[in-house]
Design goal:
The structure holds 2 protein chains of 2 kinds. Chain A is 23% helix and 25% strand. Chain A is built from 16 helices and 30 strands. In chain A, the strands form 7 sheets. A 7-stranded mixed β-sheet of chain A has the order 4-6-2-13-10-11-12, with helices on both faces. By secondary structure, chain B is α+β, with helices and mostly antiparallel strands. The chains are: A alpha+beta, B alpha+beta. The complex binds flavin-adenine dinucleotide and iron/sulfur cluster (SF4).
Chain lengths: 732, 316
C-alpha cells in the first residue's frame, strides 16, 4: 500500500480502540518477570557458555602484544578470541569503528578480545588475566582544540542560506550573538547490551537487545560475510535503548565469535563500566547562535552554526535541524561542522539533532525576548510560521505550536512569572519559571506486517517491530483491533523477530506511526480477504463487535477463517507527501525550579508539556513516553555529562554512579497535555511520534527557569551549581 | 574477581587472628563495598573472614552516658534507633543522606568507616593510581577532578573519603573500638582514625593488619541542634560534592565537620571556635590550607555557603 494522498475517513477514525488509554498488553508479563530479555532466554540449543569482553586500555594506538597463556589455563576457560585468531570480519555500514579492534585501537574500551568460559565469573576472572601491551598513539580528544579544522558537510547536513543573513543580522536593531555548549551524553538505558548467539552450521542465530531488527540482521550478515537469510535475529523485549541500540554492537559480534570458537551458545551482557566508552554516545556540541530582530519583536535574521566531533568517517550531531523550521524570518543561515576526534563513536541518541539544538536555540530565543522586553511566550507566538521558512511553498501538514504555547501558559500559571529575574523567593529558595518550544520532525519509514485470522476469531500480528519500553505491543494490538472490529483481547502481537516482515523499527520517533501504518495496510488486505471469504462486498463491509456486516448480511468475523486461516501481508510505503508538506511535531515545555540561594542546588518543582503530535494512539503510553522524555530532559539540563579526559581520551565517569541521571526525588510533578489532532497528510493513522518530542526543548526550559530564578545565565550544559554559585545573590 | 576461600569467625579475637595470620585475608561485613571492588579486581583478597556471627550487632548505653554501637549494626538500624534520633540527630541525618535503602540495610557501621574512595580513576584499573597500585602515579591529578578533594590531599593522591556517616561521627567526637589478634582492645578517637595520604595513599587508617573494629562509641549527648546537609548534583543517590555536619547551640556556638572535601572527615577545632562569627570565619580557618584543582575550587565556597545555610536555619 502506498500512502500518497491525504487520508480520507477510514476505520481508524472510529476510535473505539485507538485513542483509548488501553493498558499495556505486555504489562503483566513485565510486572511478573515473565517477559524474557535478551540475556534470559532459555530457548537455545544447549547449555550456554559465558563471554566477557576485554576493552582496549588506550584510546588510540596499537596492541603490541597480547598474552593469553595464563588466562587460557584458568578454570573453565573455553576460548579466547581476538583479532589475532578471529575470522576476518566485515564491517556493518552503520558502524564507524570496528566492533572488534586490534591490533589497531580506534577508541577507549573498543572490544579487543572476548574470553569464553563455563561461568560468567570464570570468564571475567580469566579476562583480567589476559596481558596486553599497548603502544600508545597520539589522539585528538578536545573538541575546542579541533574546532578550527572542522569541515562542512554535504546532503542533509550541508549549510543552508536563505536571503541575506549577514546583512540582515548586521543591520538588526536588536541582536543576540552567543555561544552555547552541550556535553557528550550517554543513553544510560537500563538493560545493558546483551546477546545470546549460536551457530547451526553456517547459520547464525541471536537473542539480542536491538531496536532495529532488519538493520541488525543486515549488519550481522555483513560483519560475518553471510547471506542475510543465514541470520536470525530475535529481540522481543528490550529494556530501553534511546538510540544506543539502533546499531549492531560488540555484544552480538563477540558472542557470535565466541560461539563459533567453542561450538556452543554464548551469552554476553556488557558490564556497565564498559558500555559508556565501548558503544555510542551523543557527541558534545559548540553552537553559535545569532538572532536579529526588529524592535517590535519580529525576527529578521536567524543564524545557527554547530560544531561536533566524531571518529574519522563518522557523522555530525545535526543540531541546526530545527532552526531551519521553527521560526519565521527572512534571512537565515545554518551550518554544521564536523571535527575528527578519537573519542568513542558518536551517534544517535533520542532526538538526535533537535535535543541539543533546542537546548541552545531556545535559550537564545529567551535571551532575545528579554532584550526586546517581551514575554517569551508572546515572542515565540509572534514569530510562528505556517510554512517552511527556507521553502515557503511548502506548508506544514499541521502546526499548532501557538496553541501549545498559549494553552500551556494558561494551565501553568505563566502570568505569575516575574519578567525580571531573581525576584521570586520562598524562604531561602529562589523561584523561577521557564518556557521553551518543542519541535521534532516526523519521519515515516517503510513498514510491513503480516496478520493472521484464525478460526477462533483471534487475529495475530507478526512484524519485526520492536517494543523498547514504548508500548509498541499495545498500539499495534489496538490498530489491528480497530481495523478488524475486535476487542484488544482478541489480538495477539508478535514482535522483534527477523523472520517476520520488516517494519520501521524503533528510532527517530518514527516507530509508532510507521509500524501501525504497516499493520493498517496488512489489516486492510485481511479485511478484503475476510469479506470475500464471507461472500460480502469488501468495499462496503463493516467490521465491528467481532462481526462483519454488508448490506443486510452479518456474520461473525471468525466465520471467515472457518475453512482455514486467512493470512495477509502488506507493506506501507510512502509517497511524496513528506516533500510537499513539512511534517513535524510540536510542543511547549513549562518548568518551575527552585534554586537554593545558599548552596545553589536546583530542584525542579513542576513541569508541563503541551504536545501537538497528530492523533494520539494511546494517551497512556504516549504520556509515559513524554514524562520519560521530560525526565531525560531534566538530566540533560542539570547533571548529565560524560567527562572527557583530554589527556588519555576517554569518558572518565563511565558507570551509573559517575554518570548521573535523574532519580525520583529530582522529578516531583509532571503534567502532559495532548492537543486533539489528526494529521491526514502523514499517514492513515493520522498520527505522528511523541517519544522524542517530549525531550526536545526541556533542557532550555529548565535553563531559562534557572535564569529566571537566579539572574545568572548559564550557557554551558549541564547547569551544575559550580557554574553560577559565585554569581548568586549574596547570602546573609 | 579472583577466587577466594571463606570462613565465618566465632569470636572477635579469632577473626582478628585469622586475618592477621594471612597476608591475603580480609574481613567482610555487609560486602556492599568490598564485593564491588573484588569484581573489578581493585581488591584481590584470597581469603575472606566473615564477621557477621560475632554478635556485635547491638547498640548499648555506656556507663559514661553515651552509646556503644556494635560494628555490625546496619546503617538502617543505627539511623532508626530511638536514642540516636533523639540525642544524635546529626548521625541519623547523615546516614539517611547516603546510598539507598537497600544498601543501608546491608551496610555496617565498621564497613561504612572503611569504605574506599569513589575517585573514578581508582575504579578504572587501566589508569595509574597510587592508592590502588602504590607508586603507579595519580591519573586524577590533571584529569577530571571535580568530585575530588581540596584539602588534606597530597601530590600522590587527591581522593576524598566518601562516607556520610563518618562526617557525623567526627562532629560528635566518636571513637572506634578495636581488638587485635592477641585479644588486645583499644579505642581510637575518630579524628585520628583516618590517615592523610601523604606519599602512602594506600594506607587509609591506623588499623594494624588483622585489627578488627568491634564498635563505635559516642560520648554522652552534647545537646544543640543537629544538621546534616549534603550537596550534590541530583537530589538523592549520589556522593557529596560537599556535605556539612553541624551541631549548633542557641547562642550561635557550635561545631562543624565537612564531607566531600578531604581524605577524611574534615574538622578543625580552631575553626569551630569561630562559629559565632559566622560561616566565613569558620571556613577561612578550616580551609586555610586548601589546595583545590581548577575543577573543584568551587568546593571551598560551597562548604562555606552550606554552613551559612545551617547557621541561618539555626537562627530562624
Ligand atoms: C551504589 C552505592 C552508593 C553508595 N552511596 C553512599 C553514600 O551516598 N554515602 C555513603 O556514606 N556511602 C555510600 N555507599 C557506601 C556504603 O555506605 C558502604 O558500601 C557500606 O557502608 C560498607 O559497609 P559494608 O558493611 O557493606 O562493608 P564491606 O564492604 O563488607 O567492607 C568494607 C571494608 O571494611 C572492612 N571491614 C568491614 N567490617 C570490618 C570490621 N569490623 N573491622 C575491620 N574491617 C572491617 C572490609 O574488610 C572492607 O575492606 C554507597 C555504596 C554503593 C554500592
Ligand atoms: S586521586 Fe588517589 S585514588 Fe584517585 S587516582 Fe589519584 S591516587 Fe588514585
Amino acid at each position: 500500500m502506498k500512502f500518497d494522498t491525504p487520508a480520507g475517513t477510514n476505520p481508524i477514525d472510529t476510535m473505539k480502540v485507538i485513542g483509548q488509554a488501553v493498558d499495556r498488553v505486555d504489562g503483566k508479563l513485565k510486572t511478573t518477570g515473565q517477559a524474557p530479555y535478551a540475556y534470559e532466554h532459555g530457548e537455545i540449543p544447549g547449555k550456554p557458555a559465558y563471554g566477557y569482553i576485554i576493552g582496549a586500555a588506550i584510546a588510540k594506538g596499537r596492541i603490541a602484544a597480547m598474552n593469553t597463556a595464563e588466562a587460557k589455563r584458568m578454570p573453565g576457560v573455553l576460548a579466547i578470541v581476538s583479532a589475532e585468531n578471529a575470522q576476518p570480519l566485515g564491517k556493518g555500514s552503520m558502524n564507524t569503528a570496528k566492533l572488534l579492534g586490534g591490533p589497531v585501537v580506534e577508541h577507549y574500551h573498543q572490544a579487543v578480545a572476548v574470553v569464553v568460559a563455563e561461568s560468567f565469573e570464570q570468564a571475567r576472572s580469566a579476562a583480567n588475566a589476559v596481558r596486553i601491551e599497548y603502544e600508545r598513539g597520539a589522539g585528538r580528544f578536545d573538541l575546542v582544540k579541533e574546532k578550527p579544522g572542522a569541515q562542512p558537510l554535504t546532503g542533509n547536513d550541508a549549510d543552508t542560506h536563505t536571503g541575506d543573513f549577514a546583512g540582515a543580522f548586521a543591520s538588526a536593531p536588536v541582536q543576540v550573538d552567543q555561544t552555547y555548549t552541550t556535553p557528550d551524553q550517554n543513553h544510560a538505558m537500563m538493560e545493558p547490551f546483551a546477546t545470546i548467539a549460536w551457530w547451526d552450521a553456517d547459520a547464525l542465530s541471536v537473542w539480542t537487545s536491538n531496536q532495529m531488527i532488519a538493520w541488525n540482521k543486515r549488519e550481522l550478515a555483513a560483519t560475518f560475510k553471510l547471506p542475510p537469510e543465514k541470520v536470525h535475529v530475535r529481540s522481543p523485549f528490550i529494556g530501553g535503548g534511546f538510540g544506543g541500540k539502533l546499531f549492531l554492537r560488540a555484544d552480538a559480534v563477540m558472542a557470535a565469535l565466541g560461539a563459533k570458537a567453542c561450538g556452543r551458545p554464548v551469552k554476553i551482557a556488557m558490564p556497565r563500566p564498559l558500555m559508556l566508552n565501548n558503544a555510542t554516545h551523543r557527541p558534545a556540541t559548540i553552537q553559535r547562535i545569532r538572532l536579529g530582530a526588529t524592535r517590535d519583536g519580529k525576527l529578521t535574521a536567524i543564524g545557527h552554526e554547530s560544531w561536533s566531533g566524531d571518529l574519522p568517517g563518522g557523522g555530525p550531531e545535526s543540531a541546526t535541524q530545527q532552526t531551519k523550521l521553527l521560526y519565521a524570518g527572512a534571512n537565515r543561515l545554518t551550518a554544521l561542522r564536523l571535527a575528527e576526534l578519537d573519542l568513542p563513536e558518536a551517534n544517535a541518541m533520542r532526538a538526535p539533532g533537535e535535543a541539543p539544538g533546542l537546548m541552545a536555540l531556545e535559550i537564545a530565543i529567551d535571551e532575545m525576548a528579554e532584550k526586546l522586553g517581551m514575554d517569551p511566550v508572546k515572542f515565540r507566538v509572534l514569530n510562528d510560521t505556517q510554512v517552511d521558512p527556507e521553502h515557503p511553498e511548502r506548508p506544514f501538514s499541521q502546526r499548532n505550536l501557538v496553541r501549545c504555547l498559549e494553552e500551556g501558559a494558561d494551565r501553568f500559571g505563566w502570568n505569575r512569572r516575574s519578567a525580571k529575574p531573581a525576584q521570586m523567593r520562598e524562604g531561602r529558595w529562589l523561584i523561577g519559571m521557564g518556557v521553551a518550544a518543542a519541535f521534532r520532525n516526523n519521519i515515516n519509514m517503510t513498514s510491513a506486517a503480516r496478520v493472521r485470522l484464525a478460526g477462533d476469531g483471534v487475529v495475530t500480528v507478526e512484524t519485526d517491530m520492536t517494543d523498547i519500553g514504548t508500548g509498541s505491543y499495545t498500539i499495534i494490538a489496538q490498530t489491528a483491533a480497530e481495523m478488524m472490529g475486535l476487542p484488544v483481547e482478541k489480538v495477539r502481537v508478535k514482535l522483534g523477530d527477523s523472520s517476520f516482515p520488516a517494519s520501521a523499527g524503533s528510532g527517530g520517533q518514527w516507530g509508532a506511526n510507521s509500524a501501525t501504518s504497516g499493520v493498517y495496510a496488512a489489516c486492510a488486505k485481511l479485511r478484503d480477504m475476510a469479506a470475500q471469504s464471507l461472500g460480502m462486498d469488501p468495499a462496503s463491509a463493516e467490521f465491528s463487535d467481532g462481526r462483519v456486516r454488508a448490506g443486510n448480511r452479518s456474520a461473525a468475523l471468525a466465520e471467515a477463517a472457518k475453512a482455514g486461516e486467512l493470512v495477509a501481508e502488506e507493506t506501507m510505503q510512502w509517497g511524496d507527501l513528506g516533500k510537499k508538506f513539512q511534517q513535524s511535531t510540536f510542543g511547549a515545555h513549562f518548568v518551575e525550579v527552585a534554586v537554593d540561594s545558599y548552596t545553589g542546588e536546583t530542584r525542579v518543582r513542576r513541569m508541563l508539556a503541551v504536545c501537538a503530535a497528530g492523533r494520539i494512539l494511546n494517551p497512556k503510553t504516549a504520556r509515559s513516553q513524554v514524562i520519560g522524555a521530560m525526565t531525560m530532559g531534566v538530566g540533560g539540563a542539570l547533571m548529565e555529562e560524560l567527562a572527557v579526559d583530554k589527556r588519555f581520551g576517554f569518558f572518565v565517569n563511565h558507570d551509573l554512579a559517575g554518570y548521573e541521571v535523574p532519580v525520583h526525588a529530582d522529578i516531583p510533578h509532571q503534567d502532559v497535555v495532548f492537543l486533539d489532532e489528526a494529521d491526514d497528510k502523514v499517514s492513515p493513522m493520522k498520527a505522528k511520534g511523541v517519544g522524542e518530542l517530549g525531550l526536545c526543548g526541556v533542557g532550555a526550559a529548565v535553563a531559562n527557569a534557572v535564569y529566571n530564578a537566579t539572574g545568572v545565565r548559564v550557557r554551558d550544559y549541564p547547569i551544575t551549581l559550580h557554574k553560577y554559585l559565585a554569581k548568586l545573590p549574596a547570602i546573609a | 574477581m579472583k577466587a577466594f576461600t571463606y570462613e565465618r569467625a566465632r569470636t572477635p579475637a579469632a577473626a582478628a587472628a585469622a586475618v592477621a595470620g594471612n597476608k591475603g585475608a580480609k574481613f567482610i561485613a555487609g560486602g556492599t563495598n568490598l564485593l564491588d571492588l573484588m569484581k573489578l579486581e581493585i581488591e584481590t583478597p584470597t581469603h575472606l573472614v566473615d564477621v557477621q556471627d560475632l554478635g556485635l550487632d547491638r547498640i548499648e548505653e555506656t556507663k559514661e552516658g553515651g552509646l556503644r554501637i556494635g560494628t555490625l549494626v546496619s546503617n538502617t538500624a543505627l539511623a532508626a534507633d530511638r536514642r540516636v534520633r533523639k540525642d544524635y540527630g546529626v548521625l541519623t541525618r547523615a546516614i539517611v543522606a547516603g546510598a539507598s535503602g537497600q544498601l543501608r540495610n546491608k551496610a555496617t557501621t565498621g564497613g561504612n568507616l572503611l569504605q574506599r574512595t569513589r575517585c573514578p580513576y581508582f575504579y578504572d584499573t587501566n589508569q595509574a593510581c597510587n592508592k590502588r597500585k602504590p607508586g603507579s602515579g595519580c591519573a586524577a591529578i590533571g584529569g577530571f577532578s571535580r568530585q575530588l578533594g581540596v584539602i588534606g590531599t597530597s601530590d600522590s593522591c587527591i581522593a576524598t573519603h566518601p562516607s556520610d556517616m563518618a562526617i557525623a561521627l567526627r562532629v560528635l567526637d566518636a571513637a572506634v573500638e578495636t581488638v587485635d589478634a592477641s585479644g588486645k582492645a583499644r579505642s581510637i578517637v575518630i579524628g585520628e582514625f583516618h590517615r592523610l595520604p601523604g606519599n602512602t595513599p594506600h594506607l587509609e587508617n591506623v588499623l594494624q593488619p588483622g585489627e578488627l573494629i568491634t564498635a563505635v562509641t559516642l560520648p554522652k549527648p552534647i545537646g544543640g541542634r543537629h544538621f546534616y546537609h549534603k550537596v550534590r548534583d541530583r537530589a538523592s543517590y549520589a556522593f557529596a560534592l560537599v556535605s556539612v555536619a553541624a551541631v549548633l547551640n542557641e547562642d550561635g556556638s557550635g561545631r562543624a565537620a565537612f564531607g566531600g572535601v578531604a581524605p577524611r572527615p574534615w574538622r578543625v577545632e580552631a575553626a569551630d571556635a569561630q562559629m559565632r562569627s559566622g560561616a566565613g570565619a569558620v571556613a577561612k580557618t578550616a580551609f586555610a590550607e586548601a589546595r583545590p584543582t581548577h575543577e573543584n575550587a568551587f568546593k571551598v565556597a560551597l562548604a562555606e555557603r552550606t554552613l551559612a545555610a545551617l547557621i541561618a536555619e539555626n537562627r530562624a
